[in-house]
Amino acid sequence: MTQFLKGIGASAGIVISRAYRLKEPELNVDKNSIEMVDEEILRLDGAIEQSASELEKIKVHAEKELGGDKAAIFAAHLLILNDPELVNSIKDKIKGEKVNAEFALKEVSTMFVSMFETMDNAYMKERAADIRDVTKRILSHLLGVTIVSPSMITEEAIVIAEDLTPSDTAQLNKKYVKGFATDIGGRTSHSAIMARSLEIPAVVGTRTVTTKVEHGSIIIIDGIEGDVIIDPTEEMVQQYEEKKAAYEAQKVEWAKLIHEPTVSSDDYHVELAANIGTPEDIDSVSENGAEGVGLYRTEFLYMGKSDLPSEDEQFEAYKKVLEGMEDKPVVVRTLDIGGDKELSYLDLPEELNPFLGFRAIRFCLENEDVFRPQLRALLRASVYGNLKIMFPMIATLEEFRQAKAILLDEKELLKADDIPVSEDIEIGMMVEIPSTAVAAKQFAKEVDFFSIGTNDLIQYTMAADRMNEKVSYLYQPYHPAILSLVNQVIEAAHGEGKWVGMCGEMAGNPIAIPILLGLGLDEFSMSATSILPARTQIRNLSKKELHAYKNQLLAMGTVEEVVAFIKEKINI
């Protein structure tokens, strides 16, 4: 009998194939007393060495297939594998209690996972999954159990799993794995991000797909609508084959616009840019017709390492991006750590509310020994392209002025040493804090541009942690309050002759695009794969007509009213 499951469309596309049920192996552990402690320690060391060898191979594969930022997670896994606190705790348990390595590993890893899972910090909670992934690998070698992985799939299939670990997703072979569906996860989970990088359809958060799907059964994954159809009828298969063909034909049409400008139906030009994390992402940016980079997240240079990247290492990365974009604008965000992004080698304070704490520009202004090398590297690279620099999490004019003063100071020091620096670098800031949006007129007099970071702006405005499922309903991009703040920023900037971009998820949203176009947004920055659909949509929209709806939209009371109005007016 045909069954239908609803989940979250994490990666667009449609695929019909047989299910490959990715089951967790049985890793049952008994407690045994041992006499040969040294031999047991050697067994543990051997399992760790085997795990390290596997992770190195996975890391190399991920770098080649997915890019450096996606591979950084495996560098972090290797660090966990060699973490003295974890490894020594296991060995101490073996020695002190004279128990087998499997039992000691299970006990210590469970303690570490529980400790991380109970932390308020979302980033630290995510590390629990990494520790579980790494210690499961060690345990499998101790028990002599083979972990089934997607790399073992040798014919076309759709992977079905409770969730896909970073190790699993890095081993997905696009030749055989045509899509996947999971019980848990969201659009920002590891598995969803990897699926979009590989451009394979994915539906996550179905809750029950693993209990409903049998290995080898025919299923349909609709990553556009977030649907999973189990044991479809012949008519349904035909219907989805047609829908798949229509989607593929649409992609061909989108591809025709790769080298075209982004112009509305009434000849209003906006810039469609891409968000990137590493220099390796530039190929995808070019292939998808981006007119620039609207957000280069430099924190990926710092993550998955045991120490800070050197100035020269950063210089080479920035230079590669600027040269790769061939004089198209590249907006680089200075180091944005804290909140849900932490660096193990920096002694950051433990905070009850890290999203509102010591993060981003606040950290950099207090740690100039970290901030200045990054600014020097950016300035040195500036002569290789069209560089724009922006500071994250700016709350006060004093912060912006201080950050800009440090940047200009480093510029003068480089020039004094006869190191060439571009004289055309625009200096801007992120608008992520509601008070900054409200005071945009004051900031607009001093910045060269704004980039609105809607992911944080929405959660701060609505007082709703976007990582908390209980209040996820309050994460509302189209709420009139959000639209009002965005409008204030745009009007303030345009009043001073400055431009405004947006680099949050909202910028690539089909409902938001017509609203933002009507409000006068100058630059839309999004994931590279969203650019051509957005360009197609904008070419069919009238900027003048949408602008005429502005006051009506801003006067509305609910999200539902805004969405219904837009759908009615532009027939989405």
Overall pLDDT metric = 89
Q: Largest sheet, order of strands side by side? A: 1-8-7-3-4-5-6-2
How helix-rich are the residues, as a percent range?
40-55%
Report the C-alpha radius of gyration, rounded: 25 Å
CATH-defined topology of the largest domain? TIM Barrel
The top level CATH class name of the largest domain: Alpha Beta
CATH architecture group name of the largest domain = Alpha-Beta Barrel
The CATH superfamily of the largest domain bears the name Phosphoenolpyruvate-binding domains
How many individual helices? 23
Largest sheet: 8 strands, mixed
**Low-confidence spans:** none
Number of E-type strands:
16
Question: What percent of residues are in strands?
Answer: 5-15%
Query: Could you say which structural class the secondary elements and strand pairing correspond to?
Result: alpha/beta
Features:
alpha/beta; Enzyme I, Chain A, domain 2; eight-stranded parallel beta barrel
Summary?
The chain is of the alpha/beta class and 572 residues long.
Would you write up a description of this structure?
By secondary structure, the protein is α/β, with parallel strands linked by helices. It folds into 3 domains: 3-23 and 149-253, 3-Layer(bba) Sandwich (Glucose Oxidase, domain 1); 37-143, Enzyme I, Chain A, domain 2 (Orthogonal Bundle), CATH 1.10.274.10; 256-570, Alpha-Beta Barrel (TIM Barrel), CATH 3.20.20.60. It has helices spanning 37-66, 68-81, 84-97, 101-117, 122-143, 166-170, 190-198, 209-212, 234-255, 282-287, 311-324, 361-366, 368-381, 397-416, 434-438, 440-444, 454-461, 480-495, 512-519, 531-539, 543-548, 550-554, 559-570, and strands spanning 3-6, 8-11, 14-21, 157-161, 177-182, 202-204, 218-222, 227-230, 271-276, 293-297, 329-333, 386-391, 426-431, 449-452, 499-502, 523-526. The strands form 2 sheets. The chain has an 8-stranded mixed sheet. It has an 8-stranded parallel β-barrel with strand order 9-10-11-12-13-14-15-16. A hairpin with a 4-residue loop joins strand 7 and strand 8 (227-230). The longest helix is centred in the N-terminal third of the chain and has 30 residues, at 37-66. 44% of the residues are buried.
